[in-house]
Amino acid sequence: MSNWNSILSRDNSKILGIINLSNDSFTGDGVFNHDEGLKKLLQSAKQKDIDFIDIGCASSKPGFDSVTTEEEIERLNYFINSNQETFTFSIDSFNPIVVRHAVENNFEIINDVSGFLNEEMIQIAVDSKLKIILVHRHPKSESLHQKMIYKDVVKEVKEHLNSKIKSLISLGVKEEQIAIDPGLGFGKNLSDSAELLINIKELKENFPLIVGYSKKKFIKNIPMSNSDLFKHCVDSGVSLVRMHLTN
Questions:
Q1: Domain positions in the chain
Q2: Strands (DSSP E) along 175-231, which ranges?
Q3: How far apart are CA 230 and CA 244, in angstroms?
Q4: Helix, strand or coil for residue 76?
Q5: Is the dihedral of CA 98, 209, 180, 146 positive or negative?
Q6: What is the pLDDT of residues 174-184, one digit of tens each?
Q7: What is the mean pLDDT of residues 64-89?
Q8: Domain 4-244, what fold?
Q9: Residues contacting 235, CB < 8 A, separation 6+
Q10: Which among 70, 132, 122 has a CA at the least distance from the CA of 98?
Q11: Strand-pair partners of 121
């Protein structure tokens, strides 16, 4: 059984580094077929003592262009064949075929930004027994970026996550596999995402908490520097902060 506590008990940097292999990532930092750029990002992570790296092979930005499974697999294979470094790798995808391929190539974490709605994705989590990142998604949302209305965003996100956790456990996912992510910027307006981040401590309960605010527009609504935001997250009990790597 792969569980979060065993790896989060180590003295780590609290960063889940992001590497994008998509040509249309919202930050414009995709490194598909860019050997030198990929190498520099991985070296930068090593120098900063980062243990965890999240690999994305398709964009999930608002208005993203869908890519075929073959394209996403090609990008993932490029990374697998190019990488010479040792990290704990997470696959950022909502395509179960891509995720299964990553699992077969020693990825240890499944990061599904669509909120584990796909039955095959859930089955992969059950069968592989790997760690998963459960990203919040409003239960009535019809798409990844459909803006939903919240009366109390912190309370409602917490309730939605707890409900989904119960559902996953009933389907065979183990508690030790699960970490939660409030899904900042996904299906939420700028003020709701900002409120969630400011009150992130309220979501910290029995599961590791992972937060991704790096380079997202809503952080302009929060009067904190990047270093203060990071400290705020760590002080609030966040286990890992998803951060874009720089070379």
A1: 4-244
A2: 178-181, 210-212
A3: 13
A4: helix
A5: negative
A6: 999 999 999 99
A7: 84
A8: TIM Barrel (3.20.20)
A9: none
A10: 70
A11: none
Tell me 241's DSSP state: E
Token pair of 237 as six digits: 């009990």
Q: What is the DSSP string of 79-132?
A: HHHH-----EEEEE-S-HHHHHHHHHTT--EEEETT-S--HHHHHHHHHH--EE
Answer whether 78's CB lies under 8 Å from 103's CB.
Answer: no
Would you tell me how many other CB atoms lie within 10 Å of the CB of residue 185? 24
The residue written with tokens 């970490």 in the block is 179
Question: Which tokens in the block code for residue 15?
Answer: 């960063």
Separation between Cα atoms, residue 242 and residue 230, nearest integer Å: 10
2, pLDDT greater than 90: no
Residue 242 tokens read as 């998803």
